[in-house]
Amino acid sequence: MNWRKSTYSDGGDGDTCVEIADLPTRIAVRDSKFPARATLSFPAASFAALIGHLKEDPWSEGRMPG
Description:
The chain has one helix spanning 44-56, and strands at residues 4-5, 18-22, 26-31, 40-43. With 66 residues, it is of the alpha+beta class. A 4-stranded antiparallel β-sheet has the order 1-2-3-4. The model has no long low-confidence stretch (mean pLDDT 81).
């Protein structure tokens, strides 16, 4: 698998983010601090919907709603 980190990852050691890998029909996600531990996977369409929601929602910019 080819893992990649978000371009929004924190600086420093580069270990404060998740990594994702594209699979044929799913997206795999793992913690960059512990790459040998458990990996989650989601259907590609569901993962795309989640990312779309995070980009539109105020929480994605670190603001509290209200």
